Amino acid sequence: MMINSKATIRNEIIEQRNQLNKDVKYKWDESIVQQLKTIVTGLNASVVHTFVPMENEINLFPFIEFLLENKVTVITSKTLSKRQLEHRYLTSLDAMEDGVYGTKHPSNPEKYLGKMDLIVVPGLAFDKYNHRIGYGAGYYDIFLKQYPEAYKVGICYPFQYLDEIPTEPHDYKVDRVIIG
What we know:
Order of helices and strands: HHEHEEEEEEEHEEE
Shape: globular
Structural class: alpha/beta
Mean pLDDT: 93
Helix content: 25-40%
C-alpha cells in the first residue's frame, strides 16, 4: 500500500480543515470536549497539559474552562526556539499573549516543572497505530518523550484519522486517539 508523504498529508488535511462546515465542526468539537472531560474524570487528573487552539484547530476553550472551573491545574506551552517548549500555568483565558507561529500562551511567566497526568496532543493526522503527524517542527515529539508517565491523548476530526501514516524513528506515539 502506498502511503503519502507527511508533507502531502499535511497539505491535504489543512485544506480539508479550512473547508470544514461550521456546524459540523461545532458538533465534532463538542464531541471531543465531552470525551476529554470523561478522560480527565476517569484518570482523576489533577494536572492537564493542553494546547491553546489556533486558526481552525479543534475548539478546546470549553474544555479549558471546564478544567479551570474544576480546579484542575492547567498547563500550556510557550513556543521557544530550537524546538523547545516552556510550560506555563494557565489560570485564565483572559491572561494570554501572542506567541510565534500564530500561537498564544499565558502571559503569566511562572514556569511549571512538575509531573503531568494528561497531555492533550494536537496533530494534523493520526492513525490506528497511534502515530501522529504535526506541523513538522518536532516540538511535540521532543516534549512527549520528556513525560513518559503522562497519559497522552491525540484529538482529531474523522478525516484526520487515517489507516496508516509515514513514521520516522524520532516520531512519538500517543496512548489514545479520540475522534470528533
